[in-house]
């Protein structure tokens, strides 16, 4: 898979694909459904995705907290696993946000990417102030001989599967239900940074990972599975929140304790999958009570994960 981040400079060998349009945040089951529909409609051409970074919401509503289910590099990897050969990741900045619907089709999709067929969801909107819809997209593509497949949202008993619905489930503390929508557990991916090593003093050394641009899910203690850069997976327990007993409460962080593990992880990129919320964040009377609760949390996580 090849990732392109400059839409004005696309090599000739990357052109001529069938392209799925959207943010693809999370690459959830609905996104996979869209990719499968496009592949079925035009199996004769390589599969590509046209997406954006940063998420448009970050430009239009910078005051909002981070909302991403997935960082761009992880999204690209997930798309590659679905058979996508080219990812056209458009920098969504002020200038691009003012591009008209006509210019998006003519300059980006046709002239730069050379697409031969396009697919999107029924609610896809594009162009300055989101003035383009699927009907307009079809009208603009047709003179170039480029077809359009509009794919209905995949639904389950809870309704249409969407990134916003998955975000809501995570914020409400239901990672298991979010995993059903995603098709896999939701993970926070990032580098291990230096912490205050208080977990080590409590008998539970932790790998500290900043949330960065990830959505902040419900604060509390989770049973987790941690994937190392070499592919090894370890069960563990993690605290996600502001540590009200021992911290100043200014910044949320993810602190993961890997069971039966003693290697140095500083600077390594870990993927921490949230499997189940064991309890909500709470304040304890002191370190002794906290230490006892951590031991109880760890045993509960071991039991749940079969570790």
UniProtKB/TrEMBL annotation:
Functional summary from the UniProt entry: Catalyzes the phosphorylation of riboflavin to FMN followed by the adenylation of FMN to FAD.
Broad EC category: transferase
Catalysis: reaction(s): FMN + ATP + H(+) = FAD + diphosphate; riboflavin + ATP = FMN + ADP + H(+)
Source organism, top-level taxon: Bacteria
A Pfam family assignment: Flavokinase
EC number per UniProt: 2.7.1.26, 2.7.7.2
The protein's annotated pathway: Cofactor biosynthesis; FAD biosynthesis; FAD from FMN: step 1/1; Cofactor biosynthesis; FMN biosynthesis; FMN from riboflavin (ATP route): step 1/1
Protein name: Riboflavin biosynthesis protein
Family label: Belongs to the ribF family.
NCBIfam families xrefs: PRK05627.1-3, ribF
One function term, GO molecular function aspect: kinase activity
Riboflavin kinase domain segment(s): 181-306
UniProtKB keywords: ATP-binding, FAD, Flavoprotein, FMN, Kinase, Multifunctional enzyme, Nucleotide-binding, Nucleotidyltransferase, Transferase
Listed InterPro entries: FAD_synthase (IPR015864), Riboflavin_kinase (IPR023468), Riboflavin_kinase_bac (IPR002606), Riboflavin_kinase_bac/euk (IPR015865), Riboflavin_kinase_dom_sf (IPR023465), Rossmann-like_a/b/a_fold (IPR014729)
């Amino acid at each position: 898979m090849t990732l392109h981040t400059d839409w004005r400079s696309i090599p000739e060998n990357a052109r001529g694909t069938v392209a799925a349009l959207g943010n693809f945040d999370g690459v959830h089951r609905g996104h996979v459904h869209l990719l499968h529909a496009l592949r079925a409609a035009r199996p004769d051409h390589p599969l590509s995705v046209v997406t954006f970074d940063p998420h448009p919401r970050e430009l239009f509503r910078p005051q909002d907290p981070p909302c991403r289910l997935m960082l761009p590099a992880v999204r690209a990897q997930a798309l590659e696993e679905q058979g996508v050969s080219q990812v056209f990741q458009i920098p969504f900045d002020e200038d691009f946000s003012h591009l008209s619907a006509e210019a998006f089709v003519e300059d980006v999709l046709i002239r730069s990417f050379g697409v031969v067929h396009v697919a999107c969801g029924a609610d896809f909107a594009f162009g300055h102030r989101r003035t383009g819809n699927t009907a307009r997209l079809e009208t603009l593509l047709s003179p170039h001989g480029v077809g359009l497949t509009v794919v209905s949202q995949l639904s389950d008993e809870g309704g249409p599967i969407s990134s916003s619905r998955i975000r809501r489930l995570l914020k409400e503390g239901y990672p298991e239900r979010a995993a059903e929508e995603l098709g896999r557990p939701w993970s926070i991916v990032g580098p291990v940074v230096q912490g205050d090593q208080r977990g080590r003093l409590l008998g539970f050394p932790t790998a500290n990972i900043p949330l960065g641009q990830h959505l902040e899910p419900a604060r509390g203690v989770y049973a987790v599975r941690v994937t190392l850069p070499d592919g090894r997976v370890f069960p563990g327990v993690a605290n996600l929140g502001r540590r009200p007993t021992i911290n100043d409460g200014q910044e949320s962080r993810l602190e993961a304790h890997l069971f039966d593990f003693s290697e140095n992880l500083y600077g390594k990129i870990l993927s921490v999958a949230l499997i189940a919320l064991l309890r909500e964040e709470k304040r304890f009377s002191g370190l002794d009570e906290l230490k006892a609760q951590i031991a109880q949390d760890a045993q509960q996580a071991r039991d749940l994960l079969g570790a």
